[in-house]
Design a protein that fits this description.
Elements: H1 11-35, H2 37-80
Helix pairs in contact: 1-2
Length: 81
């Protein structure tokens, strides 16, 4: 899991995901009342999928950072002995 490539900022991806999510979730009540259940489900998916993407991305980055901290801790403990 050692990745030495420089990390880009996550804010543009998160901002875009939140914008897409806002548009999708705000369209759900209007689409559902006029056109039926299927377009309402699609609008709900458009609203929720970016939020799920952001959550998965945050969890994966947290796991990578936790692994990095654990490896540094192992190196420090090995140096003490």
């Amino acid at each position: 899991m050692s990745n030495d490539t420089p990390r880009k900022s996550d804010w543009p991806v998160i901002g875009l995901s939140l914008c897409l999510s806002g548009f999708g979730l705000s369209a759900v009540p209007f689409i559902g009342t006029r056109y039926g259940d299927w377009p309402e489900a699609v609008a709900l998916a458009v609203g929720l999928l970016p939020l799920i993407f952001v959550a998965i991305r945050i969890i994966m980055q947290f796991d990578q950072r936790l692994a990095s901290v654990e490896s540094r801790q192992r190196k420090l403990e090995a140096g003490r002995k």
